[in-house]
Amino acid sequence: MQTALFFIFAAICVVSALNLLFQRHPINSALSLVVVMMSLAVIYWTLGAEFLAAAQVIVYSGAIMVLFTFVIMLLNAGEEERTRGSKAAYFAGVPGVVGVLALLVYTFLHERTTLGYATFGGELNNGVSNMAAISRVLFTDLLLPFEVTSILILVAILGAVVLARKEN
Amino acid sequence: MVPIYYYLILAAILFCIGIGAFLIKRNIITVFMSIELMLNAVNLTFVAFSHMHHAVQGQLFVFFVMVVAAAEAAVGLAIIIAIFRTRQTLDVDSINLMKN
């Protein structure tokens, strides 16, 4: 069942990501990206990361993509015109992308025996809830980075307000 | 029982689609969205390795990446709005000067 789930949602993921690449209108790209993020949430869940699956839906698809959609509508962004772009992006970029993909796939296939297999649910099988395990580490070992992120978010709020403010 | 390398290859494919979209797209908002796609691909790699090592530290790293991505989206979209106010365009090819 896990194999079927993986292949269904991996296919949805890749097709939506390609849709993001080929759509001309930014709002269509944004909605394809929401589909990618939702199917990634299901894949996280099969890997035993229930907290991250929920956070993915709430933070990424719920907050970040809504922000993107608001900005697209606010700026009334139309279809992009296809200019040629820079030549360097095509001549160096396309072989570069293919090279990176080939290198990564070769490495993963080469190391596939040491990587092992994923069992359904992960931590759930041992009777330990993912939420409890995460919060124990987050509020003991990683307490300082967790508190620093609150300062980061505060600075980001101030920066966004200052940057988007109308200058008089 | 799904091999871990399936997840890693899926992440690699998503990452490369993200790079491709970053290079090909000409709308600055779509370019920004392809960065989010690349971040998601890396997050999938973190979750897969966290599952493989039976450790939650990888998942916490993904949590921090999500927080930073949210902050980055807020600031980046504010910058895009400021650019649109001064240039009246979202095309990255016509935004090539630091100052008008």
Short description:
Chain B: One of its GO terms (cellular component) is NADH dehydrogenase complex. Chain A has helices at 2-22, 26-46, 50-74, 87-110, 112-115, 130-138, 143-164, and one strand at residues 117-118.
Q: Care to describe what's here?
A:
- The complex is a heterodimer of chains A (168) and B (100).
- Chain A is mostly helical and 168 residues long.
- Chain A has two domains: 2-128, NADH-ubiquinone/plastoquinone oxidoreductase chain 6, subunit NuoJ (Four Helix Bundle (Hemerythrin (Met), subunit A), Up-down Bundle); 129-168.
- In chain A, 75% of the residues lie in helices and 1% in strands.
- Chain A is built from seven helices and one strand.
- In chain A, helix 1 runs antiparallel to helix 2 and helix 2 runs antiparallel to helix 3 (50-74).
- With 100 residues, chain B is an all-alpha fold.
- Chain B has one domain: Helix Hairpins, CATH 1.10.287.3510.
- Chain B is 77% helix and 2% strand.
- Chain B is elongated, with a radius of gyration of 17 Å.
- At the A-B interface, helix 1, helix 2, helix 3, helix 4 and strand 1 of A face strand 1, helix 1, helix 2 and helix 3 of B.
- Strand 1 (117-118) of chain A pairs antiparallel with strand 1 of chain B, so a sheet runs across the interface.
- Chain A: Pfam families: Oxidored_q3.
- Chain A: This is NADH-quinone oxidoreductase subunit J.
- Chain A: The chain crosses the membrane at residues 6-22, 29-47, 53-76, 88-109, 142-164.
- Chain A: It comes from Terriglobus roseus (strain DSM 18391 / NRRL B-41598 / KBS 63).
- Chain A: It is found in: Cell membrane.
The CATH topology of the largest domain in chain A corresponds to Four Helix Bundle (Hemerythrin (Met), subunit A)
Percentage of residues in DSSP E strands of chain A? under 5%
Q: What's the domain count of chain B?
A: 1
- Work out the oligomeric state of the chains in this entry: heterodimer
- Give the class of chain A from helix and strand content and strand pairing: mainly alpha
User: How does CATH name the architecture of the largest domain in chain A?
Assistant: Up-down Bundle
Mean of all residue-level pLDDT scores of chain B: 90
Low-confidence stretches of chain A: none
Number of strand elements of chain B: 1
**Considering the protein shown, what is the CATH homologous superfamily of the largest domain in chain A?**
NADH-ubiquinone/plastoquinone oxidoreductase chain 6, subunit NuoJ
Main sheet: strands, sense, barrel of chain A = none
CATH topology of chain B: Helix Hairpins
> Number of helical segments of chain A?
7
CATH architecture of chain B: Orthogonal Bundle
CATH class of the largest domain in chain A: Mainly Alpha
Q: Please report the first level of CATH classification, the CATH class of chain B.
A: Mainly Alpha
How many domains comprise the coordinates of chain A?
Answer: 2
Series of secondary-structure elements of chain A, N-terminal to C-terminal: HHHHHEHH
Keywords (chain A): Cell membrane, Membrane, NAD, Oxidoreductase, Quinone, Transmembrane, Transmembrane helix, Ubiquinone
Organism (chain A): Terriglobus roseus (strain DSM 18391 / NRRL B-41598 / KBS 63)
Subcellular location (chain A): Cell membrane
EC number (chain A): 7.1.1.-
